[in-house]
Amino acid sequence: MSKKYNVVVVGAGPAGYVAAIRCAQLGMSVACVDEWHNAQGESSLGGTCLNVGCIPSKALLESSHLFAMAQNEFKDHGISVTKLRIDVPIMMARKDKVVTELTQGIKALFKANKVEFFHGHARLAQGKKVEVRERGGKKIIDTLEADNIILAAGSSSVHLDQAPLDQQYIVDSTGALEFDAVPKRLGIIGAGAIGLELASVWSRLGSEVVLIEAMDEFLSIADQQISRAAFRSYKKQGMDIRINARLLSATVKNKQVQVTYEDNRGAQQVVFDKLIVAVGRKPNSDTMFGDEMELVIDERSFIHVNKYCETSVPGIYAIGDIVRGPMLAHKGSEEGMMVAERIAGQASSVNYDLIPSVIYTQPEIAWVGKTEQACEAEGVPVNIGIFPMTASGRARAMAASEGMVKIIAHKETDRVLGVHIFSAQASELIAQAVMAMEMGASAEDIALTVFAHPTLAEAIHEAALAVDMRAIHIKN
Ligand code: NAI
């Protein structure tokens, strides 16, 4: 006999679990189906973000940052360390503990909110039904009926035929979080968010890192002034970023990965101990339903939705990485809340123009809104204020004076159109810019706001003052 719910959510990542909890808060009966399992074969909620993405990578970034600080910066503080070494298994065990605690936390939240959890592979059936199938098999364990279905099945790594994964020498981003020792020579295909974050982890721990990037412009999605500053900084940190380099082949021979790529000078060869493939992610839309479901899928396998995440089938919604827009946890979570509230009859929406992006290198890159090049391409007249972190007292005291805050405001209205930060703690600082922009702030509004001294955030204040050529701690 099938069980009936107001809402069945497919996927317990940051989009799905947030949608499920919000639906439950609004008084609906909710079930959530997720197939993720840990090494013991048990369910592990939280999707890519908690299990093999945002959270474990941040745990390793933290460990490796501390190691690099101890190695390179402690001496300036008069702190000496002898026999500094990294124990990779201990670092990995700490990362695993963080993941386990957080995934268990979602289970507890489900329990507290009375969200019923089903472990298995969900497949849509006609008449708003969701079959829960045995992992890796066809056997149907449960059938759930729903008034509304929310699809939040996430995404998975794109693989390349030229670099077949063996998960020992050639790995994806998941495998790169599991190394048991620091590879001496590490190759990374793709210098996007994942490539740069993993490059940071392993280069800080001592790997010689080479990134092979197909595009001829480094980090083209970010503001180009910031990308250029970041490129110089990463190079100084020892990362060898080769742009305009197209991978031709990667083969494992004698426990080494032989990579051939092509750049302006022709075919190049390089040998690594490990190779990470980080060339983007694709939506998990292929095994969740058959043709009979009449859900429209676009040419890149995203489920087609409108701005309210409604699919072509009434009562079926799709959110997170499986639909258009940036593949970011916070974007999926916001969509989850919006859909839950719309099912409950509220008029919620997501402001897609103000979704912040962060790349967790050191310094971090964070931005929201339009880049200078986008404004230029659209013919939008702008004033720009830039404040270098080197002029920030707090940044100096922290030995974090690399980078800048850049504010782009409309030339006539002064409304803030974009904020771009390359600095320590940029991931935290950007929230202030998102809030200001969400409230329609002008650069003048930020300039008139009192910021505590001494803080890194003062750089936002000074950049806003600089829009009107009146920053205090730099020559305008
Ligand atoms: P990405 O799309 O950010 O970067 C992939 C890079 O690989 C691109 O620069 C692309 O030009 C390059 N590339 C593609 N094919 C190539 C080839 N054959 N040879 C050489 N280079 C090639 O994808 P990434 O880094 O894998 O991340 C996947 C998703 O996860 C992204 O949507 C990203 O936003 C998200 N993510 C976000 C993070 C964050 O917010 N901090 C962290 C990690 C991932």
Can you walk through the features of this model?
The chain is an alpha/beta fold and 476 residues long. The chain has three domains: 3-155 and 282-352, FAD/NAD(P)-binding domain, CATH 3.50.50; 170-279, FAD/NAD(P)-binding domain (3-Layer(bba) Sandwich), CATH 3.50.50; 363-467, 2-Layer Sandwich (Enolase-like, domain 1). It is built from twelve helices and 22 strands. Strands 1, 2, 3, 4, 5, 6 and 17 form a seven-stranded mixed sheet that branches. α5 (193-204) links the parallel β9 (185-189) and β10 (208-212). α1 (16-25) packs parallel to α7 and α3 runs parallel beside α5. The chain binds 1,4-dihydronicotinamide adenine dinucleotide. 1,4-dihydronicotinamide adenine dinucleotide (NAI) binds at residues 160, 189-195, 197, 212-215, 246-247, 278-281, 326-328, 358-360. The site of 1,4-dihydronicotinamide adenine dinucleotide has 25 residues, from α5, β12 and β18.
